[in-house]
């Protein structure tokens, strides 16, 4: 059966695990994208989600089901069985290192990147995997329907789909930042052209904010020398629309991710640790773009400048390990822990633990900390949106103040009710944390209420709907 | 006496040295900017060049002359005596590290920059030194005349001058790249605003290429939210013109820098070393932006792929040490040497030295190598203009081919007759070097002639004239 709505992303909504009896059971996948799209597809029996098989069990599940298609929560899922080496090159080398670093300004251009054989091979794998997705999409989609491609893993797929199936209406949503043109061109020229042309195969290209959309449009003008009129790009005789669709928080599915009893227990544990002190919180994957070390240093600077706050505040950093097979990420996690230890040791007393860095993946504890914080520090170097900046305010019950990087996509909506920081400015971040702590009661109430309202934003299901509506009919 | 034309730059045209008898003698300063401007001011007795005293002898000379004003080659020079610590912060920390890294995309944003106390102090010193220059300019300039400020060291001076002397016609020329807006904002927001507003104090803002001018204009729109119409910025009720003025080569003053006999000796020495092989040349300061390591790796890649070229080519890398008091630069020089040794060792035979990395400051040898090369590799990561890419082709006598980074300002003029490379693409650079070696005789003749003609460009004196003409009258 040909699907009437197709979503494609690298990571799918299901992951399989072998039960003790050898049978496969499906688990719901994790991550913001999955819950956003899952909500939107819920109970659409005519919808199909195409994703990569991520584990050996996923591959087995794909094999055992006809055409690799399985049932999920009311919609169908197809997992693509991609050869492991090819997948590794496409995913770990090209997507999560090369493109991720380009889009978040994480290279050190005097030394990296350096394009050699490995990079070329992984670009080739990236093309191949995009082709596999495009083929699977074309093979399973009814005439003229909408295909919604997700993220930087699949930047080439739209043009590949258009070549085979010009009848389809194709959208691509880019969940991460899009860099300025000079920085995009840290990629070999052929690749940046291919990437832009790949994306322009879509009818609609979505970003979280006007800033990333603007960078994309300037890159199109600069690299491809195409004509643009505001948010329309003329490309190969078609008009491609570029839009911004900030995704909000689905509170129900967010809290559904944890047992309320576990959350209560964690609240008690954190409250106990605080002993009446104010809670300064950060919640991050240990990702280079999250700027954890500068954030901790800013807190150190607060303690240096403000002895009156000693014993009155405590900083809890909840870190989830990320991409730990990549050396830079392992080093970064070590640096975060070491910085934390150093600062804690410098200021701690017998009765006060000024800073605790916890490395774990404990969702109930995160939800509990969201409810309790007085100050939430979200200071990414660059970030497409940043969900912590939305989830925290939505769940907070303590008139908590958000200190937010102006380079997070979330800033474009939350700025009226958050304290903005330049993420590179450690002193400036320290000043913002101080200001958040010192904020008079009335302003505190007003800001926390405002940020909670803004942070909720447009629910994921409506976020997708809005894009579908903006596709040409 | 008030000057009728004022030029201001950090480094001046004169440097003083104590003779054995204790008297001070002036030496002509080095560098492209000095020869460019010096040519333009020649024999203008009514002109004044204001610069910083760089050495203790400079300071003494400034003290011993009334008002610090001295005679140079037909024009006057005033050296500003700036307290040493302040100068160090302004020059080494803020200008040559912070701003230089911002403008050449040299930071590693996951880790650097990190704005703390040292950075704030050096920004303050930067403001102070700019104020000293502005005051000196206002004190020594006749009514309504032109003041031409040079480069990123003095970005705040134009607005400071305007406040005191709105009668003056002020130009600033930015000799290095200007970055995209996202990257500019690696600076604290207050600094990027001050810098842009400082520059906009001028009537005319010049860059080497439309690319850097375009980045500047977008930054103005993005950071200051000012109105722009093509190349005009509306700022505080005035219209500021943004232009591009690529500077060319003054062949006479270039070759005047060395004794022809020395050059001949060096030609003999290089020719002897080559033994009839083709010469692949690079000439660089050991500056992080010059991309020396990737360039050497590209040559290695050529030798890997092309055993037929073994014994037929030799690569000479003439490196001049730069900023060796900065740790990153010392490390970079060591890395260049080590990479060179490794590649040489890998391919060398009893009769063939495939690569020689020479670290020296030997201008006659550079001029000799310019005449002799078959292929000149100029592959900076980013570069405002790059003079090697102009000097080489102008002096070459061997139908030499230029392999040139598309991120060098020179690319905008030389592209019709050079082989372009993406500087991050080692494989691509290797392909361009191969192509340059393999180029058929006819194309070789055509390209080398073309690039020599284009490289000469607009002579420095006319480059300054053009800007003076574009100032409002």
Largest sheet: spatial strand order of chain A: 5-6-4-1-7-8-9-12-11-10
By secondary-structure content and strand pairing, the structural class of chain A works out as alpha/beta
Instruction: Name the beta content range of chain A.
Output: 15-25%
Give a short account of the largest sheet of chain A: 10 strands, mixed
The helical percent of chain A reads 40-55%
Biggest interface: chains and residue counts? A-B, 44 and 45 residues
The average pLDDT of chain A is 94
> Given the structure, what is the number of helices of chain A?
18
Rounded Rg of chain A: 23 Å
How far is it from the N-terminal to the C-terminal residue of chain A, by CA?
A: 22 Å
CATH class of the largest domain in chain A: Alpha Beta
What's the name of the CATH homologous superfamily of the largest domain in chain A? Glycogen Phosphorylase B
Low confidence ranges of chain A: none
Report what the structure shows.
The structure is a homodimer of 473-residue chains. With 473 residues, chain A is an alpha/beta fold. Chain A is 46% helix and 20% strand. The first copy, chain A, is built from 18 helices and 18 strands. In chain A, the strands form three sheets. Chain A has a ten-stranded mixed beta sheet with strand order 5-6-4-1-7-8-9-12-11-10, with helices on both faces. In chain A, helix 11 (292-305) links the parallel strand 13 (278-285) and strand 14. In chain A, helix 3 (84-103) packs across helix 4 (117-139), helix 4 crosses helix 5 and helix 7 packs across helix 8 (210-224). The interface between A and B is large, with 44 and 45 residues.
């Amino acid at each position: 059966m040909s699907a009437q709505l197709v979503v494609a992303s690298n990571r799918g909504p299901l992951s399989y695990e072998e039960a003790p009896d050898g049978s496969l059971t499906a688990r719901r996948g994790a991550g913001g994208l999955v819950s956003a799209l899952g909500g939107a597809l819920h109970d659409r029996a005519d919808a199909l989600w195409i994703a990569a098989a991520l584990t050996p069990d996923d591959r087995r599940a794909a094999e055992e089901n006809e055409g690799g298609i399985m049932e999920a929560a009311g919609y169908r899922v197809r997992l693509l069985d991609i050869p492991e080496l090819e997948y590794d090159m496409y995913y770990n080398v090209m997507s999560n290192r090369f493109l991720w670093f380009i889009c978040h300004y994480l290279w050190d251009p005097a030394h990296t990147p350096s394009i050699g054989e490995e990079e070329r091979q992984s670009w080739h794998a990236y093309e191949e995997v995009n082709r596999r997705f495009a083929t699977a999409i074309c093979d399973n989609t009814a005439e003229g329907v909408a295909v919604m491609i997700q993220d930087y893993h699949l930047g080439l797929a739209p043009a590949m789909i258009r070549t085979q199936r010009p009848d389809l209406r194709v959208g691509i949503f880019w969940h991460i930042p899009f860099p300025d043109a000079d920085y995009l061109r840290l990629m070999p020229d052929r690749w940046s052209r291919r990437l832009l042309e790949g994306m322009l195969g879509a009818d609609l290209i979505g970003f979280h904010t006007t800033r990333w959309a603007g960078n994309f449009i300037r890159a199109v003008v600069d690299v491809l020398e195409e004509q643009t009129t505001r948010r329309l790009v003329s490309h190969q005789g078609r008009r491609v629309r570029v839009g911004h669709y900030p995704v909000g928080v689905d509170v129900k599915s967010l809290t559904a991710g944890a047992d309320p009893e576990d959350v209560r227990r964690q609240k008690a544990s954190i409250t106990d640790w605080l002993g009446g002190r104010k809670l300064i919180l950060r919640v991050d994957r240990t990702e280079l773009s999250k700027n954890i070390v500068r954030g901790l240093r800013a807190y150190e600077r607060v303690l240096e400048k403000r002895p009156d706050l000693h014993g009155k505040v405590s900083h809890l950093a909840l870190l989830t390990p990320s991409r730990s097979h990549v050396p830079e990420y392992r080093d970064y996690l070590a640096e975060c822990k070491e910085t934390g230890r150093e600062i804690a040791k410098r200021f701690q007393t017998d009765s006060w633990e000024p800073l605790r860095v916890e490395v774990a993946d404990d969702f109930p504890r995160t939800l509990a900390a969201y409810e309790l914080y007085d100050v939430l520090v979200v200071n990414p170097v660059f970030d497409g949106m940043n969900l912590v900046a939305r989830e925290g305010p939505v769940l907070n019950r303590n008139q908590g103040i958000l200190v937010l990087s102006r380079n997070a996509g979330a800033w474009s909506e939350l700025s009226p009710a958050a304290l903005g920081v330049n993420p590179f400015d450690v002193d400036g971040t320290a000043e913002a944390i101080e200001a958040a702590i010192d904020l008079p009661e009335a302003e505190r109430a007003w800001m926390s209420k405002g940020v909670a309202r803004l942070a909720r934003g447009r629910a994921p299901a409506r976020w997708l709907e809005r894009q579908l509506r903006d596709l040409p009919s």
